[in-house]
Amino acid sequence: MDMDERFEWRETYFILFLAAKRPSLQQIEKTVRKLGSHFEFSGKEVDEDGLLETLHIRSPEDHSALEIDYLVGDEVRMQIDELVKQMRGETAERAKLDLLKKCDARFEVMHFEEMSDGGDRDDPDEEFDPSALLVVLEALVDLTGGVGVDPQSGTLL
Predict the structure, then answer these.
(1) What angle do CA 28, 33, 34 make, to 5 degrees?
(2) 3-state DSSP call for residue 120?
């Protein structure tokens, strides 16, 4: 993340969706602003149609930041094929798996913790809070009509 060295990577999530439903930067900013006024935007990159390529979202009160990158192509298809194979027996996730099979694009959502002075925090009032990640993920899944994925556990969100 190009914010600065105070941010330490924690985890990465994916949102898989149909490329035809790729939202514009303007749609994403509007959606995230509805979640709270504390979100700050930077690192904005769009294609010629104004569709999101990259975005950084910082939540100072949560001591966290997100980097969202758009990907499409063979890497995404291979990831989806692998997820479908892993979850083939999951009947509770059938609707999400059916949707997942149709997806051809993804947002890679990297979650960072803001460290104070380059180290761990000693002040309990400055707690890292993962809620920014969770609410933004849910909002982007709704916006794209896609499926959220925790790749570490293979869980569909």
Answers:
(1) 105
(2) coil
Outline where DSSP puts E strands in the chain.
Answer: 7-17, 40-46, 52-59, 64-72, 105-114, 147-150, 155-156
Tell me the pLDDT of the chain averaged across its residues.
89
**Partner residues linked to 74 by β-bridges:** none
Instruction: For residue 70, list its beta bridge partners.
Output: 107
Lookup: tokens for 11: 């985890």
* Chain CA centroid to CA 119, Å: 25
Residue 60 backbone dihedrals phi, psi, to 5 degrees: -55, -40
In this structure, what token pair is assigned to residue 63?
């001591």
Does the structure show a pLDDT above 80 at 123? Answer: no
Q: Which residue has the tokens 């980097």?
A: 67
Tokens read off for 61 = 């009160």
Tokens for 46, please give them.
């769009």
Amino acid at 8: E
pLDDT tens column, 45-103? 999 999 999 999 999 999 999 999 999 999 999 999 988 888 776 666 788 888 999 99
